[in-house]
Amino acid sequence: MSILEVKNLSAGYGKRLILEDISFEVNDGEICGIIGLNGSGKTTLIKGITNIIPHSGNAFIDGQDASLLSSNILASLCGFIPQKSGISIDLPVLDVVLMGFNPKLKLLQNPNSYMISKARAMIKTVGLEGRENDNFQKLSEGQKQLVLLARALASDSKILLMDELESYLDFKVRYKTMNLIKNLVKTNNMGALLSMHDINLALNTCDKLILIKDKKIADTIYPKTDLVADIEHKLSSIYGEVSVHKIKTDANHEQMVMLNRPEE
Amino acid sequence: MRPSTALASKHNSLLFVVFGALLCALFILSLFIGKYPLTIEGLISGSELQWRVFTTLRLSRVVVGLAGGFALGIAGFIFQTVFRNPLASPDIIGVSSGASAGAAAGILFFSSSIMVTLCAFGGALIAIVLAIAFSVIDRGGHKSTVVLAGIAVHAIAQTVLMCLKLVADPEKELASIEYWIMGSLNGINSHIIGSNLILCVVGLILLIMLHRQSILLSSSGDEAKMLGVDVTSMRLILLGLSTLVVSSIVSMTGLISFVGLLAPHCAKKLTGNNSVSTMILGGLIGSCILILADILARSVAATELPVSIFTSAIGAPFLVLLIFQGRKDT
Amino acid sequence: MKRLTSLLLVSVMMLFAACSLNPGDTTSNQDAYYPITVTDQSGREVLIESEPQRIVSCYYIPSSLLIALDLDSRMVGIEDNADYRPIYSLSAPELLDLPNVGTVKVFDVEACMATEPDLVIMPLRLRDTASVLEDLGLNVILVNPESQDLLIEMIDVVSRATNKVDRGQELIDFITNTDDMLNSLLDGVDSHTVYLGGNNDFLLTSGNAMYQSGVITNAGGINVAEDIDDTYWAEVSYEQVLAWNPEYIIIAANSQYTVEDVLADENLAVVDAVNNGNVYQLPSNIEAWDSPVPGGILGSVWIANVLYPDLVTDEILENTIEDYYETFYGFSIEA
């Protein structure tokens, strides 16, 4: 079943269109990556879907038209994880996670004890048990991303939207976090849409990659089923001369790598 | 009580006890300092004149000191949180200068005290809208933008003020305008505080209840939007309410500098977080500072001195300290 | 002939003054006189139950009036910076020791209450504060001595409120008589032009609407700035002063510059007044006669003496001043 269906979406800032006529779907249990060069509109796509910027066309989340939803319902359906949180004041980790319950609370209401215990459970899920009262500001960037992930999960959202999640994470944490997201998506029947920089990470963790070029979806890659040659061909249209290889790791796991083909 | 604060609650309740006791002591001390010889015996004996002076003048003045300091502390907290800038406060954002330009216009064109209040609020509101508008122009969303916007608003308000001063009659309105800008609790009496105080208290209660919303706004705009916050209107509500409580006080007292910056910072340094109890603690500290400054303003010299002399004397070095600390962080 | 009339006038005035010194009439008929309702200069009706014994004034003009009405001994509070005005130390030095109740800008309600007054005299602009004092049970009279007519009205209101009607009338008579004397002495005179330099800056002057302009015209002068209708000191340029080319320059009593400064100012070197050395400063050793104090009319006499020394002689000037301060303030002027 499709969790997210984007139909003929065009979006931009002011009169300048960044994206034109984008259509795709994300199904439940699926992780979909958005790939493209810097400035190709990866972040714009997420903002268009979540109604943050003006756009034409539709995005249906769990069957409902996002642009018709109240900000509260939209917020509870989407777990949004920004590239970097704007929080710049001293807050305990638990309070940051509790922010995720806002769509379910009335204006003057405070989180109840059920929400607090759920927030603690989410903090445990992302592996930060015991850090509930630590100052969010003092955490490493990787830990901050995990806290934001816990916050995004708090509201029983249907789809996780992440904007360049990996850019502040170091190599090891990237894979760890992606695996965590993969498990969460599978067990909670959610979908995930991530804009990504790291192609190798994307090829090895996403179920589906959409390639954005010249305001449009240039191609879609299914890393698990597509032939390596096809993948290489599709990626070349964005990155120029590249080669993609499937290699086996020590534990006999297959991994894909994209390498730059040096110019002669 | 939220568990996140429960761990630190022992520390917090100690802080509340300390500042609550300090505030009570200053409040009572302030009730019995002044030119008119009020005595506890006189009040107990039921002297009508003593009671009249006590309620009309002394109590009103101290209550405004209490409410004013609290309001500035709470409003400062909101400004700093919503603008995501530790330097944001009614002074820095230009709200205070907007209020003074508005009050000057009120003094000049209407002269009734209600109109001065309304004009001060109007001026403050225009200033904050301008500050937001200027900071929106910079799409980069740098944290310093709002301070720069505040400087611009301040400059505009000063220009308006200068023009108003130019047309003011120096013996009459100019004197009131200048006295207003200096700020003093001297003119406070029970005649003028009623409606302003109600406005202030209602605004403060709402602001405390909206604490969670202010924290949500402390994340970036898109982030808050995706947490289900109607960012634009919530910002306007919070800043509008803060402006309202500030101008309800400063329209009676004139400008009071630095309390709005100082008090919430002290509270945050002491608790290390931004919980609702930190917000209220900031209010208590604001009340302590203002009542103390007012005690000094009316007792160090034979005549009344502007209260901002004392709040600034404490505030200015603190501001410099903050700037240097901020530099170390980045 | 004119000199004769003037002498006659002065002697009539002195006679009046002598009569007023008749002891006993100051507190006579107290029981019959009070209660009395007076209408102050804001139009408020003030009911005074009995003769005020503890009076506070927070403005130097009514303070000076209280001395002239022989009420200084009943004053219990005075405006801030009282030592700045020599009239107090000359006439009633004990006033300088009274508690100060603040200024017109910063009135200190508590300090005023602490003096336990039964009558407070304050300027019109403190109207709001007056209602607070009234609620605290005090009688307040608002005064507004912004012109000679309003000054006379103020004298009338305050003297009626304090049962000093006779004394007040003497003061009013002195003012009107002196005014009349100047008018008759200067009748038909060829008027000189005068530029008045303000307190804070030479290039601030008084337009037609200001009290100070009346001081010049009463003295038979023509205010060169009479076309300006600002109600407060108006700023002018050197060029404007040169264009006016006044015959006389008078500078305000409490000005922050001196006659020498004006004479030495090269920008003014071609002005007639400067060329002929006709630059004078109103004296400040008693009161600033260019402000609407009860003795403000003396400013006109003084300027008339400068402009027309043959008509308003030094003798007339000295006699008028001496008479005024001896009669109303009880001290004699040493030459």
The portion of residues assigned to helices of chain C is 40-55%
CATH topology (level 3) name of the largest domain in chain C = Rossmann fold
Described by strand count, sense and barrel closure, the largest sheet of chain B is:
none
Shape assignment of chain B? globular
Total helical segments of chain C: 14
Q: C-alpha Rg of chain B, in Å?
A: 20 Å
DSSP strand (E) fraction of chain C?
5-15%
Mean pLDDT of chain C: 89
Q: What is the element string of chain B, with H for helices and E for strands?
A: HHHHHHHHHHHHHHHH
Q: Uncertain segments of chain B of ≥5 residues (pLDDT<50)?
A: 1-6
Identify the overall geometry of chain C: globular
Task: Give the N-terminus to C-terminus distance of chain B in angstroms.
Answer: 34 Å
Main beta-sheet strand count, sense and barrel state of chain C: 4 strands, parallel
Tally of extended strands of chain B? 0
Structure description:
The complex is a heterotrimer of chains A (264), B (330) and C (335). With 264 residues, chain A is α/β, with parallel strands linked by helices. Chain A has one domain: P-loop containing nucleotide triphosphate hydrolases (Rossmann fold, 3-Layer(aba) Sandwich), CATH 3.40.50.300. Chain A has eight helices and twelve strands. Chain A has helices at residues 42-49, 71-77, 93-98, 113-125, 141-154, 171-187, 199-205, 228-239, and strands spanning 2-13, 16-27, 31-36, 55-61, 64-65, 78-81, 159-163, 191-196, 208-213, 216-221, 242-248, 254-260. In chain A, the strands form three sheets. Chain A has a six-stranded mixed sheet with strand order 6-7-8-3-9-10, sandwiched between helices. Chain B is mainly α and 330 residues long. Chain B has one domain (10-329): Orthogonal Bundle (ABC transporter involved in vitamin B12 uptake, BtuC), CATH 1.10.3470. Chain B is built from 16 helices and no strands. In chain B, helix 2 (9-31) runs parallel beside helix 15 (276-299) and helix 4 packs parallel to helix 10 (190-209). The two termini of chain B are 34 Å apart. Chain C has two domains: 29-163, Nitrogenase molybdenum iron protein domain (Rossmann fold), CATH 3.40.50.1980; 189-329, Nitrogenase molybdenum iron protein domain (Rossmann fold, 3-Layer(aba) Sandwich), CATH 3.40.50.1980. In chain C, helix 3 (60-68) links the parallel strand 3 (55-57) and strand 4 (75-77). Residues 17-28 of chain C have low confidence and may be disordered. With 335 residues, chain C is an alpha/beta fold. Chain C is globular, with a radius of gyration of 21 Å. Chains A and B meet through helix 2 and helix 3 of A and helix 11 and helix 12 of B.
